[in-house]
Design a protein that fits this description.
Helix content: 40-55%
Strand content: 15-25%
Structural class: alpha/beta
CATH topology of the largest domain: Rossmann fold
Number of strands: 13
Length: about 350
């Protein structure tokens, strides 16, 4: 890598909110918060223009002669021809393929792009687009509006977007919408792993997986999407809450601003901290529970604060060890179905 390229990367990292804040422990950068909020406001305003959206996600690095590129292009064409809006991340690879298919059939082709120093520019088949500086605001927009989600093979970013949607659906924060995985050869090993390992921790995950659709062709994917049209129900992150001039759009944005400010205030002062994550579905005699307790105890003995999701299972084990050994024990919890999911071993907590 060229010297000037390295220097630019280092400078961009210093300017990036998520990179430098933990060096000082001060998360209360007013202008950064305003920038985040502007992305939410502009993002939701942008989405209010759209209708019958299908979000297509997948690798940015698959070439045009890839089988999956051609399937995504064909699916985009089916969506465009039948009045659906095709939403992608606006970049190359699978994103370009889906946008291209919709564009070629004179359909609605939308890109929600990310501003990166050396990668991903908007592809030429996007008719409407907006760009984001922060990955997390972009991901909110990519998942919020969709009436269906289609996942093609991809890397860590695709997996992140996949499990984000899955988790929201399982928690009841998002409607049970069609979730379609294209490519049995790629996805089946992951599904086998989840069934063998994850579902054994908590069998509720199996019912979640039963709602996923594994397909190999654009026609199969479109049949599932088109068969589900008009069957969405209300839920906290429902697409319909952000459409057609809904009166609560602005108030939702104010609530996001409030949680951002309170969250950053809560985190301010944390520098030497370690976040421990894991399932809430293990019992006290589980080897994973015991291991989390021992790890947390060792960290506390070496001067680290412990941060968890504040709920049961692994989080409880880590928080319990921190509290019992005189350390700082933080929980960043969540209210689900009116219930606050927090354990009793927290020296400080916040609920979202």
């Amino acid at each position: 890598m060229k010297k000037e390229t390295i220097e630019k990367c280092e400078q961009d990292a210093k300017e990036d909110f998520s990179y430098y804040i933990n060096e000082s422990g001060d998360y209360r950068d007013t202008w950064k918060i305003f920038r985040i909020m502007s992305e939410f406001v502009e993002g939701y305003q942008f989405l209010n223009q759209l209708d019958k959206e299908v979000t297509v996600l997948g690798s940015a690095r698959l070439p045009e002669d890839s089988t999956y590129y051609n399937i995504a292009r064909e699916l985009g064409g089916l969506l465009g021809k039948n009045g659906y809006t095709t939403i992608t991340g606006g970049g190359p690879g699978i994103m370009q393929a889906a946008n291209r298919g919709a564009f070629e059939k004179d359909g609605n082709s939308v890109g929600l792009n990310i501003q990166l120093p050396f990668e991903q520019r908007i592809n030429p088949y996007v008719k409407k687009s907006t760009a984001f500086y922060y990955f997390f605001t972009r991901k909110v927009m990519l998942t919020s509006p969709a009436h269906s989600f289609v996942y093609f093979p991809g890397g860590y970013g695709t997996m992140d977007e996949f499990f984000e949607v899955v988790d929201h659906m399982e928690l009841g924060q998002m409607c049970d919408l069609p979730l379609i995985l294209v490519g049995r050869e790629f996805w089946q090993p992951l599904l086998d792993f989840l069934e063998e390992k994850v579902c054994k921790l908590d069998n509720r995950h199996q019912s979640t997986m039963d709602n996923w659709h594994l397909v190999d062709t654009a026609e199969e994917a479109f049949a599932i999407i088109d068969g589900r049209e008009g069957k969405n129900s209300a839920c906290p992150l429902s697409a319909m809450n952000f459409h057609n001039g809904a009166k609560n759009v602005d108030w939702r944005i104010f609530r996001i601003m409030s949680e951002l400010v309170e969250g950053f205030e809560f985190l301010t002062g944390l520098v030497e901290d370690v976040t421990i994550l894991g399932t809430r579905s293990v019992k006290h005699d589980s080897p994973y529970y015991i291991a989390a307790y021992r790890l947390s105890r060792s960290l506390v003995e070496n001067g680290y604060a412990i941060v968890t999701g504040g709920a049961a299972g692994i989080a409880e084990a880590a928080n319990k060890a921190a509290m019992e050994n005189g350390g700082e024990s933080f929980g960043i919890g969540m209210q689900v179905n009116g219930e606050q999911m927090v354990n009793h071993y927290l020296t400080k907590s916040i609920i979202f």
